[in-house]
Amino acid sequence: MTENPHDAAEPKRAERSKKAERWKKAEQPPAGPRPAPRWAQRGPSSARAYAPASAPTVCPVCRGPVEGELTCQFCGQVMVLPTGIHLSTVGLRFGGFLLENLLMICTLYIGWLIWAFLVFPQGQTPAKQLLHMRVIYIPEARAARWWRMFFREFIAKGIIGLLAAVTLLIPYFWLLWDRNRQELWDKMATTLVVTDRADRLRPSPQPPAELPGGRS
Ligand SMILES: [Zn+2]
């Protein structure tokens, strides 16, 4: 005798309806405030949100007003860090950028990479170590550690670099969506580009402007 296919499907169906029941239960909001999803538990990404709640109204270093700020806008003191720890100056940041690239070239990148992996746990890169700078993880007011440094130096910088490259390349593709296939430089110069196989638009040689002893 052949087996009834419905019988075989029966336990499966029962299980499915049990699953559906469970899903329905899960969909019902639990009593009380719903806990934030794990990815949202990290807190705001805005630096200003980490200004201390019971903040001093004046900077302990320079006495400038700092209400609601994470860092003093006058001397760069970071409110959640010990007195005397201030933001690196723009000049130092730029110097660090140049030095970092110089170190990469001088060590054929591989040396820089090994050095970087060794100093990442201290919140530093090779240039930052030489210039006594450190990357701080704001929510915990401490030095960034290996993974955050790795994310900052390779993933985040990679994404920004890619975005910049794509954005800067857009003008070169302008003719693709332009009615007159003009590039932006065509617009600036009031030009467009045609194919002229038979040279029909070649300017004819100019007649000599004025022959010596010519007509009046
Ligand atoms: Zn200050």
Automatic annotation (TrEMBL):
One matching Pfam family: RDD
Stretches for region Disordered: 1-45
The entry's keywords: Cell membrane, Membrane, Transmembrane, Transmembrane helix
Keyword hit for Membrane: yes
Membrane topology qualifier: Multi-pass membrane protein
Basic and acidic residues bias (residue ranges): 1-27
Annotated TM spans: 102-120, 154-177
Subcellular location: Cell membrane
Keyword hit for Transmembrane helix: yes
InterPro entries, per database record: Pra-immunoreactive (IPR051791), RDD (IPR010432)
A GO term from the CC aspect: plasma membrane
Start and end residues of each RDD domain: 91-189
PANTHER family to which the protein is assigned, alphabetical: PROLINE-RICH ANTIGEN HOMOLOG, PROLINE-RICH ANTIGEN HOMOLOG-RELATED
Protein name: RDD domain-containing protein
Source lineage: Bacteria, Bacillati, Actinomycetota, Actinomycetes, Kitasatosporales
